[in-house]
C-alpha cells in the first residue's frame, strides 16, 4: 500500500474498461477530482484501452500484473467479469495495494472466503462496491422505518422486475452470469440490512424465464429474521408486470415506493385508539363493531435527510483511505450477501 499525503487525491487504476469500468466507475468520478485521480487503466481489448487513454490521458495496460506494478497506482479498482474478481483482488493484495471490488465480490461464498487470509497478510485493504447501499429510495425508507411512524415493521417486499430476452455474458453460468450475481448482491444487501436481525430461516426459488443463456433470470428469496420480521425479495428479467420496488408493512401503517416517490398510509399518531376486546358472540352485523380509524395518507418525494446518492460510496471510500474512517460496507456484511447467494443456488441447475 502506497503512503500518500492525507490531502492528496487517491491515485486509482481501473481494471476492466467495459460496461462497469468505462460506463460507471469512470463517469462517477467526474467532479471528484479532489479525491480521486485516474492514473491507469487495464483491459484485454485494445480499442477499450485506446479510448480510455484518450479520455483520461493515463497509462493503459493489457495485463493486470503491469497495472498493479505501476508505482503510481495506489488503489486497484476491479471492474472485470465476475469470475475474475477474486483472482484479480488477490494479485493486488499480494502487492500490498488497496482494492475496490465491483459486486459481486465473488461468484460463491467459499470463493469469497479465500480473500480473508490474503487480507490478513497484506498491507492493502479491501472495499466492496455495494453502491446501492446509498440509493436514495433505500436511504429514505430506512429513515421512515426508524421514525416508528409505521409502528413495528413486520414485513418488507423488495422488487426489481422487467422482461428481457437478454443474450450477453451475464446470462451464462460459466461467465458468472445470472440475476443472483447481477442485481442479487444489491437487493440481498438491502434485505439483510432491512431485516435488522440475524437470519433465522430462508426459502428461495430460481427460474430461467426469458433470457437466452443458461443462468437464472428470475429469483425469489424470503428471509425471516430472528426478530420475526420477513423480507420477501424478487428480481426478475422475466416479469411482464411491474411491481413497486418497495413495500413496507408495519403495525400502524405502510408504504410503497418506486422511482422518485413514496406513498405512505399510517394511523394518525395524535389520534389515541380506543381499547377494544374480541367478543365470542355473533355480531349483529358485518365483521364486528365499527372502528373510527383516522388515517394519514400522503405522497412524498424521495429525499433522504442523509443526502446520499449512489456515488456517495466514493466519498466514503476516500474518507476511509485518507482519513481512517470506517467504511460503511464491512467485509462480513459482504460475505453475508454471498452466503445467501450460495444458499439460494444450492441444489439447483444454476449452481455451476
CATH superfamily of the largest domain: Dihydrodipicolinate Reductase, domain 2
Instruction: Round the Cα radius of gyration to an integer and report it.
Output: 23 Å
So what's the CATH class of the largest domain? Answer: Alpha Beta
- What is the H/E order? EHEHEHEHEHHEHEHEEEEEEEHH
Mean pLDDT: 96
Approximately what portion of the residues adopt beta-strand conformation? 15-25%
Shape assignment = elongated
Q: What is the architecture of the largest domain at the second tier of CATH? A: 2-Layer Sandwich
**Spatial ordering of strands, largest sheet:** 8-9-10-7-11-12-13-14
Structural class based on helices, strands and sheet pairing: alpha/beta
Count of DSSP strands: 14
Tell me about the biggest sheet? 8 strands, mixed
The stretches of 5 or more residues where confidence is low (pLDDT under 50) are none
Helical run tally: 10
Kindly report the CATH topology of the largest domain.
Answer: Dihydrodipicolinate Reductase, domain 2
Distance between the termini: 35 Å
Structure notes:
This protein is of the alpha/beta class and 352 residues long. The chain folds into 2 domains: 10-129 and 311-330, 3-Layer(aba) Sandwich (Rossmann fold); 134-308, Dihydrodipicolinate Reductase, domain 2. The protein contains 10 helices and 14 strands. The strands form 2 sheets. It has an 8-stranded mixed β-sheet with strand order 8-9-10-7-11-12-13-14, with helices on one face. It has a 6-stranded parallel β-sheet with strand order 3-2-1-4-5-6, with helices on both faces. Helix 4 (85-94) packs parallel to helix 6 (115-121) and helix 8 crosses helix 10 (331-345). The longest helix is centred in the C-terminal third of the chain and has 15 residues, at 331-345. The mean pLDDT is 96.
